[in-house]
């Protein structure tokens, strides 16, 4: 999908260095993908902390299992 965005050249240069990409589009794509992954991981962590998932075993039972 094509998108037009205005980015500061210095920020884009830093982004390309950080991602190791030599072209702008792949650098931006990597950055966006990483941002989405981090947001999803943070949301999953929040859900775990709030007890959204109901696991039938305790932490101790998991730690003592052979799996």
Features:
single chain; 67 residues; mainly alpha; 64% helix
Overall description:
The protein has 67 residues and is mainly α. Helix content is 64%, strand content 0%. It is built from three helices and no strands. The chain starts with 8 loop residues before the first helix and ends with a helix. The model has no long low-confidence stretch (mean pLDDT 91).
Percent of residues in helices comes to: 55-70%
- Uncertain parts: none
User: Would you tell me the structural class of the helices and strands?
Assistant: mainly alpha
Shape: elongated
- For the terminal residues, how far apart are their CA atoms? 43 Å
Give the integer mean of the pLDDT values.
91
Q: SSE order, as H and E? A: HHH
Largest sheet: none
Radius of gyration: 20 Å
State the total count of DSSP E strands: 0
Strand content: under 5%
How many individual helices?
3
Summarize the SSE layout with pairings.
Layout: H1 9-19, H2 24-49, H3 59-64
Helix pairs in contact: 1-2
